[in-house]
Design goal:
473 residues; mainly alpha; Helix Hairpins; three-stranded antiparallel sheet; 16 helices; coiled coil; Snf7-domain-containing protein; Snf7_fam
């Protein structure tokens, strides 16, 4: 079982059911008329499976070990890779690719690369000769079932994979604010975004060409040439063309990356030579020890040279970045100056503003004069009548205040009289309560005295005699 078939059977839900699998591998082209829903469901399942397999890097490649993640090559090699032990090769792959091309989900590779207009334009269609080339016009009528069972040879761009990769790349590049950081070489671009779709499988050079065309033509996000790629800035409507400065920046970054990649092996070589020399000395192998030390010195010299170059290139890169940023600042200042000059010209400069202000003041003075004339043309006002009316108002206000003061005084006196009346009533209540208590005390004293007098009249001796008298039987 091939890696492609193993991937589809394990990861595609539509291919996990044995009954559904039999339907997908059978000749279901006649279902277009008898069971359209089943036909389109099978077509959709195959398109998704092939797109996912391409993204996973399990589609067979045309020679070599590099797998395309954005492109599918059709032919007998693909059919054999999809051959099932029980159901054989799929019968309707030609119908699957035809449907995908007609809906612009799979695009003929050469048409995609050579087209001058965006694939998103409604007028974009693949060239007829490309369709004929891979055997989808055997009946002369596109879109009808019955085209050949044998899948023709061709290469097709999987648009969904291309769009996913492009969106992720643009998302990562959005964090780059400097124009210098938005310039990459092809090598740097492929290294940086190699695993944008798959952490295991890397983009191929063919995938790189597809991505660059899509980003430049369809997304209008980059400009590029044979060596350099430049992403547009946020302020640009369209990407700026590649300049010599851009090429120099990309080349400088490549040189820094190359030197950095050579530093670690040289460090390991120095360490290895040092260990070899020490072991040779311990073993009394002086010739070998000197050779190891000589190798160590050469490696140290080369390492030092590269470290100095890295430092020098790094400073150059920083200065270049600073210079590019300064250019952007100056451009912004120039644009601001032009805009400010245009605004000043619109108001006529200082002379124009002075003229406008003088005219405004003159018109304001004219308005005041007109207002004065209008006021003077009215009937004269008798000042004596105004004084008499004013005095009458003052008298009325004074009388009102005196009346309010008298009312307040009367209310205050009434409150004082009421308070005095309440005080007298409380005093009477206290006097009455006091008399009542005194009467009760006198009465209680009299009762006690009367009780004491009664007890003193009784003779104790008589009481004793009465107790001693015998009682007759």
């Amino acid at each position: 079982m091939s890696n492609l078939l193993d991937f589809i059977l394990n990861y595609e839900e539509a291919f996990k059911s044995r009954n559904r699998l039999a339907s997908l591998y059978a000749d279901f082209r006649n279902q277009l008329n008898t069971n359209p829903d089943g036909y389109h469901a099978n077509i959709a399942a195959w398109k998704k499976a092939l797109a996912d397999a391409a993204r996973a890097g399990v589609i067979p490649s045309q020679g070599g070990n590099t797998k395309d993640l954005l492109n599918i090559r059709t032919g007998q090699e693909l059919a054999r890779a999809l051959q099932h032990p029980n159901f054989g090769q799929p019968t309707c792959l030609s119908a699957v690719f035809h449907d995908a091309v007609s809906k612009k989900e799979f695009l003929p590779l050469q048409d995609f690369l050579n087209s001058q207009e965006s694939i998103y334009k409604t007028s974009w269609v693949p060239s007829p000769w490309a369709v004929v080339k891979w055997g989808l016009r055997t009946l002369g009528v596109l879109g009808q079932p019955g085209f050949g069972d044998k899948l023709g040879t061709g290469s097709f761009v999987v648009l969904s994979n291309v769009e996913t990769a492009a969106e992720e790349i643009l998302k990562q590049m959005a964090a780059q604010t400097s124009d210098v950081d938005r310039v990459l070489s092809r090598k740097d671009f492929l290294k940086r975004f190699s695993n944008v779709l798959n952490p295991i499988s890397s983009l191929s050079p063919n995938d790189l060409n597809i991505l660059l065309v899509h980003l430049a033509r369809d997304k209008q996000s980059i400009s590029y040439d044979a060596q350099t790629i430049k992403f547009k800035s946020e302020n640009d409507q369209t990407p700026q063309p590649i300049t010599q400065i851009d090429s120099a920046i990309a080349n400088l970054r490549d040189q820094i990356a190359k030197l950095n990649s050579e530093i670690h092996p040289l460090e390991e070589k120095v360490a290895t030579a040092d260990i070899t020399a020490r072991e040779a000395v311990r073993n009394k192998m002086m010739t070998r020890a000197k050779a190891a030390l000589r190798s160590k010195k050469l490696a140290e010299s080369a390492l030092e040279h590269r470290l100095q170059l890295v430092l020098q290139f790094g400073e150059t890169y920083a200065k270049m970045q600073q210079a590019v940023d300064q250019v952007e600042i100056v451009k912004a200042m120039e644009a601001s100056a032009v805009a400010l000059k245009s605004l000043n010209n619109r108001v006529g400069g200082t002379e124009g503003v002075t003229k406008v202000v003088d005219t405004l003041r003159a018109e304001m003075d004219t308005t005041d004069e007109i207002n004065t004339i209008i006021n003077e043309s009215g009937a004269p006002v008798d000042e004596t009548e105004i004084d008499d009316e004013f005095e009458a108002l003052e008298r009325a206000e004074k009388e009102r205040e005196e009346a309010e003061e008298a009312a307040k005084t009367a209310a205050r006196l009434a409150e004082l009289e009421q308070a005095e009346q309440q005080r007298k009533e409380k005093e009477k209540e206290r006097e009455a309560a006091k008399d009542t208590k005194e009467e009760q005390a006198v009465e209680e004293t009299s009762v006690r005295l009367s009780q004491m007098s009664f007890k003193e009249d009784v003779n104790p001796e008589a009481e004793k005699e009465q107790e001693k008298t015998a009682i007759p039987a």
